Amino acid sequence: MICSISSGEAQMLTRKQQELLLYINSRLGEDGVSPSFDEMKDAVGLKSKSGIHRLITALEERGFIRRLPHRARALEVLKLPPGIEGTVATLSVIEGAMERVANQDTPERMNDNTVSLALHGKIAAGTPIEALSDPTQSIDVPMSMIGNRDCYALEIEGDSMIEAGILDGDTVLIERGDTAENGAVVVALVDEQEATLKRLRRKGDSIALEPANSAYETRIFGPDRVKLQGRLIGLLRNY
Known about the structure:
The protein is α+β, with helices and mostly antiparallel strands. The chain has helices at 15-31, 37-44, 49-61, 91-96, 129-132, 143-146; strands spanning 65-67, 75-77, 108-109, 114-123, 138-142, 151-156, 171-175, 185-190, 194-203, 206-210, 219-221, 226-236. It is elongated, with a radius of gyration of 21 Å.
């Protein structure tokens, strides 16, 4: 439960910043784990998780919280605003609890140059993106590659996009969203079952998913059969 806030409290923080700080501290004190971005978004009445990301960054910059390195969704409250009664949830409480790691879809800032993205495993035909999620896996990527966009990472399996320079074993960075421009490389969910990475082409009322390999055929679907789950914005490769 979020505590009520009087007008004279916490001059250093905005109302939303203070509401979020108190909510995080309350959750840490109750069960020893940080709330998910979706839970924080609902608790303070925001419409997007990017707004929560900005609030957390502001609280961190003001010294009220810190992120625990290399642990997704792990936050520690360092202090409460002046005039607020309550006990700060200690690090020992956080570390002693079983860490809940579901819903790790929002980038977590590790430092000024790097963010940690949820790694959703290999993209393969017949598997929706949600089913690929392994909440224990993440990957650090340069902040300059994604900025403040809501992204996740996928490992490529197969050779259907090799002529676009996307090879088996590459890690692609996907901006989450349900729209994309014609010609973009997208993650598409076909018939609510099959997730695939292909180039998007709209032809009248039809949607074409084009491979970048002459050995594969373009597939054409009605608009009600395809849902976009994001668009390609970057690629990482190990040599």
